[in-house]
Amino acid sequence: MATSRTSHEKACMSFPGIDGVKVCVAGDAGSGNVMSISYILPGFTGIACSSCDRGKNSKNLDGDAKRVFDAIDAFLNHKLLPDLSMLDLEKMAAAFKTPFSRKVIDALLKTRAGQTITYKELATQAGSPGAARAVGNVMRSNPFPIIIPCHRVISPKGLGGYSGDVRGTSLQIKQKLLDIEASMT
Q1: Which residues, in sequence order, are bridge partners of residue 12?
Q2: CATH classification of 92-184 is 1.10.10.10, yes or no?
Q3: Where are the domains of the chain?
Q4: 57, 37 in Cβ contact below 8 A?
């Protein structure tokens, strides 16, 4: 019995203002749906990214994946806030499988651009006071950063973490995303 495999296309762009960081959008080659948004950080060798060498080029993406790539580019260049409607709702539901994670994302999506919320506040709004650490786990596993604005979730003592990192380049990315949103609101 033959198994069906999804073919993915990927396009990357430089993250303005942070040397060596790339933002990549992976899309399904057949449907054009967004599969993931990810970062490639400097110093992480062994990560093959043939699309990174081509510069900002979304020609190999189609449909929503191309629109998301272009929207992220516009956002990073202070031109347009990202629009959640570009993500396939089924793909989002598949990414956030548990009722808790869906409640957390629903509560997060009620925040406005330029607004921050603590992990504890988000846990409370999601109906689970005391689950701040679990909220952090949901944010860390977000396959659609920037579009699903996990960068808005902070610690009461500072930025907290971003994409599972609590120092270094990831926090620079988080701060830059917050600064871009603040400049556009």
Answers
A1: 24
A2: yes
A3: 8-89, 92-184
A4: no
Give 51's DSSP letter. G
CB burial of residue 3 (10 Å; 0-12, 13-18, 19+): exposed
Return the number of other C-beta atoms located less than 10 Å from residue 60's C-beta: 16
Average pLDDT in the 94-99 region?
88
Put simply, whether the predicted model's pTM sits higher than 0.85 gets the answer yes
Q: Cα–Cα distances in Å, from 148 out to 16, 26, 48, 53, 94?
A: 20, 15, 25, 27, 14
Q: Is 43 in contact with 92 (CB distance < 8 Å)?
A: no
Per the model's pLDDT, the better-predicted residue between 112 and 53 turns out to be: 112
Stretch 100-116: mean pLDDT: 94
Please check whether residue 22 is in contact with residue 49, taking contact to mean a CB–CB distance below 8 angstroms.
Answer: yes
Q: Using CA atoms in the order 160, 164, 169, 171, what is the torsion angle rounded to 10 degrees?
A: -20
Instruction: Give CA separation, 31 vs 63, 123, 142, 156, 164, in Å.
Output: 7, 34, 21, 41, 30
Query: Which amino acids are annotated catalytic?
Result: 150
Q: In whole angstroms, what is the distance from residue 171 CA to residue 177 CA?
A: 10
